[in-house]
Write a structure and sequence with these properties.
With about 110 residues, the chain is an alpha+beta fold. About 20% of the residues lie in helices and about 20% in strands.
Length: about 110
């Protein structure tokens, strides 16, 4: 599955996780997380992309929202590693913003079974 909008995400858990993050705003009323895309492979593992170069705290918030549906984890327990858990990318096409952050789900996490 490849989704370019939250409404195209046909997995209810993934849809709801993306939707909740899309509601977050900073003190100026600006959206914090601007959804770019979600890709889920046949094994149920995902890559989630958001526009902009997200900081570590934002990446942790995405990880908590998407990756730990049945675990009580805090952001302090996470230690995201570049090139393993997330990467920064540049897109040279017609995207609204060229820079984006992609966060990868942990190996073996199958969203088809949630």
């Amino acid at each position: 599955m490849y989704a370019l909008t939250i409404n195209q995400i046909n997995n209810s858990f993934l849809h709801d996780a993306a939707y909740v993050l899309s509601l977050r705003e900073n003190s100026k009323g600006e959206k914090i997380f601007k959804f770019r895309s979600l890709y889920m492979d046949k094994s149920g593992e995902c890559a989630i992309s958001y526009y902009g170069r997200l900081n570590i705290d934002q990446i942790k918030e995405i990880m908590i929202n998407f990756f730990y549906p049945y675990e009580d984890k805090s952001c302090d327990e996470l230690d995201p590693q570049y090139n393993i858990d997330y990467v920064y990318n540049n897109s040279h096409n017609t995207d609204k913003e060229s820079e984006f952050t992609t966060i990868f789900t942990p190996d073996g996490l199958n969203y088809n079974k949630l």
